[in-house]
Amino acid sequence: MGLICNWNFHGDVYMKGSTIWHLQRWSSIFILAYVVYVVSFIISFSPILYSDWMIFVSSYIFKIATSIVFISILVHAFLGLWTIGTDYLTPRTLGFLNLALSRIADTSRLLYNIFFTVLGLFLYLFLLFLIWI
Q1: What are the φ and ψ backbone dihedral angles of 71, each rounded to 5 degrees?
Q2: Which 3 state secondary structure label does DSSP give 7?
Q3: Residue 5: inside a domain
Q4: How far, in Å, CA of 128 to CA of 120, rounded?
Q5: Alpha carbons 83 and 77: distance in angstroms, whole number
Q6: Which residue from 6, 29, 27, 33 is spatially nearest to 17, judged by alpha carbons?
Q7: Domain contains 4
Q8: How many of the other CB atoms lie within 10 Å of CB of 82?
Q9: Residue 84's Cα: distance from chain center in Å?
């Protein structure tokens, strides 16, 4: 866990820049490969019949690929949102706006991270429900 991130006393996560960079790039590649996979199906079966589409989306390859790509989307989005939170929800940056805001910056950043983490987990569980059930 020390290679990817470290936690401090306030519950903030400090991630290695190279790890974030690689996760962002690899998640983008997975998302692009998935889009190419779906678009190639659409192009090859044009016009698409309902039965062809149902066979495609009910295949295990599609379900597994969609599950993995949605994890990639969540990782990509979380890292982007985490970067925004660590850049802009700090006592220094919020202190430029208002001194009272600078006092609650750490709490705001923690709530911001919790909100988007819970939202991402909820969306992932919802996607799993839609795809696999």
Answers
A1: -60, -40
A2: strand
A3: no
A4: 12
A5: 10
A6: 6
A7: no
A8: 19
A9: 13
Please give the single-letter amino acid code of residue 13: V
Instruction: State the amino acid at position 54 in one-letter form.
Output: M
The encoded tokens of residue 25 equal: 């790039």
State the residue range of the domain holding 56.
Answer: 16-132
Q: Which of 15, 131, 28 is nearest to 72 (CA)?
A: 28
Contact 67, 127 (CB under 8 A): yes
As for how many domains the chain has, the answer is 1
Residue 102 confidence class, pLDDT cut points 50, 70, 90: confident
Q: What is the pLDDT of residues 44-86, one digit of tens each?
A: 988 999 999 999 999 999 999 999 999 999 999 999 998 888 8
Whether residue 102 lies inside any domain: the answer is yes
Residue 123 half-sphere exposure toward CB, CA atoms < 13 A:
14
Neighbours of 74 (CB within 10 A): 19
